[in-house]
Amino acid sequence: MRSSSALLVAESSGLSECLDRLAAQKRESRPLATYRLQFNREFRFEDARRLLPYLHALGITHCYASPILKARPASAHGYDITDHNAINPEIGSRQEFEDFVSRLKSLGMGLVLDIVPNHMGIGDGNNPWWQDVLEHGRTSEYAEFFDIDWAPFNPDLRDKVLLPILGDQYGEELESGRLRINYGNGSFFVDYYDKRLPLDPQTFPLIFEPLGDLGRRRSSSGEEKDIEELENILAGLRSLPFHQTTDPMLVEQRRQQWPPLRERLSRLSERSSPVRALIAEALEVCNGKASGPHAFDSLHRILEAQAYRLAHWRVSAEEINYRRFFDINDLVGLRMENPRVFAATHRLMRKLLAENCISGLRIDHPDGLFNPPQYFIRTQMLNAAAHCKGAEPVEPVSENGIETEVQNIFGQHDWINRQAPLYVVVEKILEPGEHLPGHWPVDGTVGYDFANLVNGIFIDERNLKAFTNTYHRFVGGAVDVDTVIYESKKLIMSSALAGEVTVLTHMLAAICSTDRRARDFTRSALTGAIRDTIACFPVYRTYVDERGNVSELDRGYINQAIARAKRRNEAVSGAVFDFLRNILLLNSSRDSSSNDDARDRLYFALKFQQLTGPVMAKGLEDTACYVYNRFVSVNEVGGTPKSFGTSLEEFHRGNSIRAQHWPYSMLATSTHDTKRSEDVRARLNVISELPRHWSSQVMRWRGSNRSKKTVIGDGRSVPDYNEEYLLYQTLVGVWPLQNGEQKREEFIQRMQRYMNKAVHESKVNLSWVNDNPEYVAALEQFVGRLLTPGSRGKRNYFLRQMQDFVPRIAFFGAINSLAQAVLKITAPGVPDIYQGNELWDFSLVDPDNRRSVDFSLRERMLAELNSASKSNSPAEFCGELLQNYDDGRIKMWTTTRALCLRRDEPLLFQLGSYTALSGTGDKREHLVGFAREHEGRMAIVAVPRLACTLMRGELRPPLGEAWGRTELELPARLSSDFRNVFTGELIRLNNSRSLLCGEVFAHFPVALLISH
Fold it and tell me: Is the pTM above the cut of 0.85?
C-alpha cells in the first residue's frame, strides 16, 4: 500500500513541522468508539471488510482488532505469534488487509491493533527464531532474543533449553520408539508426534558412528567419490564450534561454515543413492532397530548432545529455564528490553505505521515486560521515525536501537514529553485504588478498571453481610477471602511458577553470600520470604527501572507487602524480610559497595517485579476467583472477590479522575478475557437486591438436588457445595431468555464445559496438572441431571423452579445492562463494544465468549430498527421495544442511538467537562446522573440503579411511575430544554430548574438528553 501521508517528506518541510502534523493527525484519528473483532480462520479480513457498513451505521468509528500477525496454525485468538513480520495467512493476505484498511478509510473509520510484545508461540515448530535457537544454542543469532537462563541453578541445564514436551518420562518415551530421528533437505531432526525439533549440525556425525568406518564401505562401493564427499562433509560438521560457545569469533565461524555444509549434504543426498542408503541405515540403527537394553543408547547420546533437553511436561513448573507467558510452555518470553529484539519484532509494525494503516495500538500484557515504560517510549519513537523517515530504519540497529535513530533525527527534541504522537492503550490491570503512572506515554488502559467500577454501582452494598452469611451457610463454614487469595498465590508459586521462584532464590542466595549480615540465611528461609512477600503484594507489579529509580508509590507497595508478610509469619525472624525489602528498595549494603554487588541487587529487583504480575494473575484471577464464590459478579479481571459493590461517590470520582488525566482511556464492559459478559453480570447484580429470596431459593435447590449428586470412588460427593453454589449463580446469569428444545442440549454442553473449566481452575478437587476423569464425569452428570426434563412419572422440579425464578431477574438485569451501556458510551473515555454485545449476550469465560457471532442477524435488525423508528411514533416504538425486550432490539437501539450521538458530538464527549448530578426525593439513591458540557453544548445522562428495589420487584414497564416526585438537579447555569435521543421527546426544565424523573423515564428506562 502506498502511503498517503505527506510526513515522509519531513526533510524538506522540517522535523518540527513533521511532529506538529503527527500531533494534529493523532487528534483527528483518535477513536470515539471501538468495536472489538476477533480474527481467526473462521472470521477473516474479507468478513470484516463486508461488515464495516454495519459498524459505521451502528456508530462505531474504529475497529479494534485482535492480533493479526502470523500465529500458530488454527489459532483461535492470535496471541501465539510465530512471526512478527508477517500477516497471518489464515485470516487473509496482505492485499486483503489493505482492502480492509482502504474500506475503513472510505467510511472515515480507523483501526486500533492489538499487538503482543511479551511472548511468542513455539509449540508447533513454526517459529523460525526458536527453531534456530534449538538448532544452534548460544551460537544462534536469536539466542538472546528469548528470555532464557543459560546458566540455571541445575548444572545439567547449563547452555541448554529445557523442553517439557513429553507425555511420559523421557526414558519411557525414548525406549518406546516415539522419539525418532529423520532426515530432509540437508538436516537431521527428531520427530515426536506432531512436533519436529532440529538437531545441532555439529552432532550429525554421531548419527553415523554406529556404522563404523565409512572408508571400508567406500572401497567396496561403486560410488567412492560420493562416500568420500560424505566423509568430508561430516569432518566439516565435526569441526564446527560447539553450540555452547559465546566467543564472537567462534560464533561467526559456525554461522559462516554451516550453510554451505548443509547445501553440500542436501545436494549429495539428492543425487547419490549410496549416500541415501547410508543415511537410511544410520537412522534405522539410531532409532532402535537393534534389540536389547542398549538399542537406544545411540539415540540417547545424540539427544543429550543437543542444545535442549527433552523432559516430561510435569517438570516444567520446577525446572523450566525460559520465561513463559504465565505457565504456558508453548509461549516463550521475549527480551524486549534488547534493542535488537525490538527492532526485529517491529519491522512490519513500522511499515504499517508509515503507511497510515493504523490509528492506534493496544499493548497486550505489558506487565510481563522487563521495563514496560521503556517499551512504551520506544513504540512512540517508532511511530515518529516511521512517519518522519519512512518504513525502513535509516541506519543499522545500534546498541540503543530506535533511541539512537530518533535522536539522530530529532536531536534533543522534547517531543515525547510534549505529546506522544500515537494513540496507545495498555492492558494494565489496576487494583482498587491504583492509578496508571502519569509519566507513561500512553492514553490509558483497555478498560477493566471501568468495567469493575460501573458494575459495582448496580450491586446493593447494604446486603454484603446477608450474602456472606448465605454463602457460609451453603458451603458449611466460614471462608476468609484474604486467606483464600493469599493461599492461592502461594499455591501458584509452589506449583505452576515454582521454577521462577527457584531462580529468584538462587539469585538472592548469591547476593547473601557477599553480605556477612545475610550469609547465614538458608535457602529455605529465602524461598519462604520471596513467596510470602509476593503472596502479600497489593498490586500486580512495581516499576523500578534499570537506572535504579524507585518511585514513592512503588516504595509504599513494597513496604506494605513486607509488613503483611511479616504479620503472616510471626514465628519467622523478621531479619530475612528486612533484607529482602532492602534489596527491592535498592538500599545500599554496608558490607559491599562494588559495582557488581549493586548490579546484582538491581537485576534481582527487576526480575522480582517481573514475577509478581503472573502470580497475581494466576493466583487471584485464575484461582481465587473460582474458589471464593460468595458473589461471582465481582470475580472479574481487574476486580476482586473481596468486593461487594461501589458507591456512587466512587463511581463519579473515578470518572472525574479519568476526565482530567486519561480522557482517551478505553471503557470496557465485556472483552475476550472477561469471565462473564456484561449481561451476565448485570443479571447477577439483581440478586444482590434480593438476599432473602436468593438465600431461601438456593437452600431449597441444594436440598432437592442432593439426590442428583454422585459419590465417586474416593468417597467425595460431586460437586462439592462450593462448586454447586457457583453453578446456581452461573445458571441464573446465563439462563436463555427464549427457550427452545433444539438448543437445550447445546446449553447443557456449554454448562458442562464451563463447570469443567471452573473446577480445574480452582485447583481444589482437581487441576489441569492433576486431572480426575471420574470427578469430571460425575460433575457433567450432575449438570445434565439438573437441566434435563424429567419423564411424566418423574418431573424435574429444579427446571420448573428455575423457570419461575429467572424472569424477574432477567427483566431487571436487562434494565441494568441498558443503564451500563449508556454510562459506558457517555462517560469520559473511549467506549468499546465487544463483538456481538450490541444484542444480549450471555457468554462465559473463553472459549465460550469466542463463539462465532451472527452478524447477518445484527445487520438485518439494525436496518429494521432504523426503518421502524421513522415510521412509528417515538413513544409507541420505544414501548414496543420494552415490551419485547427479550429479543435484544432494545439494547441495540440504546447502543446505536448513544453511539451516533457521540459521533455527531465528538468534542462534547472527548473534551467535555464531567459534572456529577444528584437527585432529590425518596428515590434519589436509585438515580445515576452526570452532565457532559463543552462550549455551550450539554448532554445529560440519567439511568436507574437497583431497579428491582425501585420497582418493588414488579414487572410493569416503563419505570416512570415508580419515581414519584424524585427529580434530577441540574447546574443553575442551565437554561436549555433537552431532547431525549432514545425517544425523541422534548424534556423541559421545571420551575426549580430540575428534571422530573417520572417525565424523563416515562417511555424508556434510560435517558440521554442533548441540549435542544
Answer: yes
